[in-house]
Specification:
This protein is of the alpha+beta class. It contains two helices and seven strands. The chain is globular.
Amino acid sequence: MERSKAEHRLALLINKFPECIHKLVKHYMVAGYEYIRLEINCPENIKIPIREFWRNNELIRYGYQLVIGNKTILRYDNTPHHPEIETFPHHKHVLNEVQPLYDNSIESFIEEILKIIRQRK
């Protein structure tokens, strides 16, 4: 039996953030659709909310965030509200600045947040 996207995401996140608490908040699969909402809670008040909506193995909507304390440090998403960005609808929020997002993969997001977390230490 093929693993769901949620199982793949959880395995990836557990591997990258073993010291954190991983929670599958919401997950459903219906007729070619899959919705995933995960929360990762790490030491030092670091939270990593993840949400993805898939249709027939195509990522339709996503939002990945790094929250430290109560401040969003980094967010990747494809909500179509920044048409001025050259990678529209894909973009990232770095603190309060909206920037183009050339690689919208969760792996790219994870690498970027790991760099941010390492720089804090």
